[in-house]
Amino acid sequence: MSSGFYVQIDNFSFPSEQWIDLSVSIIEMWLAVVNEHLLYAQNDSVLNFMEGDYEIRLRRETNYCSFAFFVEPNGSISHSTTIDSLYLARQLLSVSSKTMKLLQEHTNTYHMKKLKELTSALRTTVHKLSKTKDNSR
Q1: Statement: residue 11 has pLDDT above 70
Q2: What is the model's pLDDT at position 111?
Q3: From CA 34, how far away is CA 118, in angstroms rounded?
Q4: Looking at the predicted structure, is the pLDDT value of residue 49 above 70?
Q5: What is each CA distance from 23 to 15, 50, 70, 96, in whole angstroms?
Q6: Of 104, 102, 130, whose CA–CA distance to 5 is shortest?
Q7: Which terminus of the chain is more exposed, N or C, with fewer CB under 10 A?
Q8: Contacts for 85 with CB less than 8 Å, ≥ 6 apart
Q9: What's the chain look like in SS3?
Q10: pLDDT recorded at residue 51
Q11: What are phi and psi of 134, to 5 degrees?
Q12: What whole-number distance in Å separates Cα of residue 25 and Cα of residue 111?
């Protein structure tokens, strides 16, 4: 399913506000990558777009904070910023929930099942890490 799909942060849109991509496939990939990034304390993770060689590279700074590099197809970095990893996960969960509602209308069972599984896994991770973060204060 192709639709408009881009990331907006710090008044910066990536790849662009007009970007069309395979949004359901990207959401599925990103749910898994962000979950692993949070769970396994990986230093570096990559969020890929399907159409074109655009990517967002995440570099872990702390358990709850990552540095994001927005990488163009030629390898140049067009923007970089620090992001709250749990905030990123929550935003992705919100997009996933909205996407599942749209898929219900189109009865796409394969993607619905996959999105539900990945969303549930990330939601569990966010819940667990949020409790840990709250207890450390």
Answers
A1: yes
A2: 77
A3: 10
A4: yes
A5: 13, 8, 18, 10
A6: 102
A7: C
A8: 34, 37, 38, 58, 60, 63, 64, 65, 66
A9: CEEECCEEECCEEECCCCCEEEHHHHHHHHHHHHHHHHHCCCCEEEEECCCCCCEEEEEECCCCEEEEEEECCCCCEEEEEEEEHHHHHHHHHHHHHHHHHHHHHHCCHHHHHHHHHHHHHHHHHHHHHHHHHHHCC
A10: 81
A11: -65, -40
A12: 8
Would you call 75 helix, strand, or coil by DSSP? coil
**What's the CA gap between 85 and 69, in Å, rounded?**
14
Average pLDDT, the chain: 89
pLDDT of residue 21: 86
Spatial contact of 122 and 92, defined as CB atoms under 8 Å apart:
yes
Q: Identity (one letter) of the amino acid at 107?
A: T
* Residue whose token pair is 């819940």: 127
Q: What is the pTM of this model?
A: 0.86
Confidence of residue 107 (pLDDT cuts 50, 70, 90): low
* H or E element in which residue 42 lies: none
Residue 130 confidence class, pLDDT cut points 50, 70, 90: confident
